[in-house]
Structures are given as structure tokens and as C-alpha cells.
């Protein structure tokens, strides 16, 4: 996401997902009441960051739960569609620090989306957050971009901030058709987050067990294991 090519790829993937109704899901599919309790400790009025948010229904659900939400999205179309679909009045302004960047903001100030390259943002623009919901941003950062992305996350996370990090764990060498989502193992998480976060593996789902043909078709034959793993991180 640090280059035009990266944003073009994300845009193409988003359009493909739109055609397949990939974004038509219930808001509690990936963010449940149990997740919310872990992330908020029952508090409201917290600032949530949702990187690479698309038109995620979880953002509206978080607002309805009494939270304040800031999304980041590299493609303009889902930003517009989020506000229209949720029937939220909003305004759009340029991000002066980022040429071509747009800032979508609801009239009540409860939800906003920065439409730009996520890696061009900084804490001076975003501010600080009490919680982060990262369902698909970290895994689309290639191996070279991960440290820069993590540096951004560290700079915008308050002490005590809770981060829900969803990753995909598999053997990169087994994958014939390369590309995102990139694999993330426990060692990767410890290397990048271990010096500033407490790390807890929250859940682990065997995705290959129920639909091996899906991965053979998209990634090529030979994938022997694939897990969706959620980590709950707490900033020290």
C-alpha cells in the first residue's frame, strides 16, 4: 500500500470482492460482543482505528455501541458507499499533508475515514487510539512494508490500547500463486510487536479443513495447512 501499484492492486481486489458480494456481511461476523468486551473493558467513548476498512459494517456497529471510529482506506469508492449505505450525513475535505488524499467525516464527528495510502499517514494527522480492529490490513502488507506499518500503529496507540490483529498462518513456500494475504506466524508477531505489546493468541481456526479446494484453486496445489489466527495485543 506504499505505492500506486499497491493501491491499484487493492482497488482491483476490492472490485472483485464487490462483484462476489464479499462485502455483504453481518457486522458481527468478524467483530463480536466478546471481541468488544475484550477491546473496551465495557467502556464507551473510546477511539477505534480500523485500517483498510473498506465499507466495513463493523464501523457503524461500533458507533452504535457508543464508540468513536476512524477508518483508513486506499480506495475512494467504498468510503463513499459506507456513508451512503449507512445513511450517515458527511462532508469531504482534502488531506493537506497528503496530495490526493481525502478525509470523509460524519456531521456528528463519530465516524471518519482517511482515503489515502495508509503508510503516508502519521500520528499528527490521526491522533491516538484506545483500540485497533485490524482484520485485513497487516496481512496485505508485504514483508518489506510490515515494519513501517507497525511503526505507524505504535505511534498512534495509547498505553493500554488493545489491538485485535487477525492474520493468516500458512507456509509461504507451499504457495504457488504468490500475493496477499501474506502469511504471519507467531514469531513474526513477537518480532514486530513483542517489544511494545503484550501478546495473547485469542483464537485459531483451521480454514483448510473445510474447503481445501478453495486454496488449491486460488494459490495452487500443495497447501498443507492454513489457519486464521486472532491475536489480542495490549500496548505496554
Automatic annotation (TrEMBL):
GO terms for molecular function: thiopurine S-methyltransferase activity. The keyword Transferase applies. It catalyses: S-adenosyl-L-methionine + a thiopurine = S-adenosyl-L-homocysteine + a thiopurine S-methylether. The keyword Cell membrane does not apply. It is found in: Cytoplasm. It comes from the Eukaryota. Its main location: cytoplasm. GO terms for biological process: methylation. Keywords: Cytoplasm, Methyltransferase, S-adenosyl-L-methionine, Transferase. Its EC number is 2.1.1.67. GO terms for cellular component: cytoplasm. It is an enzyme of class 2 (transferase). PROSITE patterns: SAM_MT_TPMT. Belongs to the class I-like SAM-binding methyltransferase superfamily. TPMT family. This is thiopurine S-methyltransferase. It comes from Stichopus japonicus (Sea cucumber).
Amino acid at each position: 500500500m506504499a505505492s500506486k501499484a499497491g493501491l491499484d492492486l487493492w482497488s482491483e481486489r476490492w472490485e472483485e470482492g464487490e462483484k462476489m458480494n464479499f462485502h455483504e456481511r453481518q457486522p458481527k461476523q468478524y467483530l463480536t460482543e466478546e471481541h468488544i468486551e475484550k477491546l473496551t473493558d465495557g467502556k464507551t467513548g473510546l477511539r477505534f482505528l480500523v485500517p483498510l476498512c473498506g465499507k466495513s459494517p463493523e464501523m457503524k456497529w461500533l458507533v452504535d455501541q457508543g464508540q468513536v471510529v476512524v477508518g483508513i482506506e486506499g480506495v475512494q469508492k467504498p468510503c463513499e458507499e459506507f456513508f451512503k449505505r449507512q445513511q450517515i450525513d458527511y462532508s469531504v475535505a482534502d488531506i493537506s499533508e497528503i496530495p490526493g488524499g481525502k478525509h470523509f467525516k460524519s456531521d456528528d464527528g463519530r465516524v471518519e475515514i482517511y482515503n489515502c495510502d495508509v503508510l503516508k499517514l502519521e500520528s499528527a494527522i490521526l491522533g491516538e487510539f484506545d483500540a485497533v480492529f485490524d482484520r485485513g490490513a497487516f496481512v496485505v502488507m508485504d514483508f518489506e512494508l510490515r515494519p513501517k506499518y507497525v511503526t505507524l500503529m505504535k505511534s498512534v496507540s495509547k498505553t493500554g490500547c488493545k489491538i485485535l490483529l487477525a492474520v493468516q498462518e500458512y507456509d509461504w513456500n507451499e504457495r504457488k500463486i504468490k500475493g496477499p494475504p501474506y502469511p504471519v506466524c507467531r514469531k513474526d508477531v513477537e518480532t514486530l510487536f513483542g517489544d511494545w505489546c503484550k501478546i495473547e493468541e485469542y483464537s485459531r481456526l483451521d480454514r483448510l479443513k473445510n474447503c481445501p479446494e478453495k486454496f488449491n484453486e486460488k494459490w495452487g496445489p500443495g497447501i498443507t495447512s492454513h489457519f486464521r489466527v486472532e491475536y489480542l495485543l495490549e500496548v505496554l
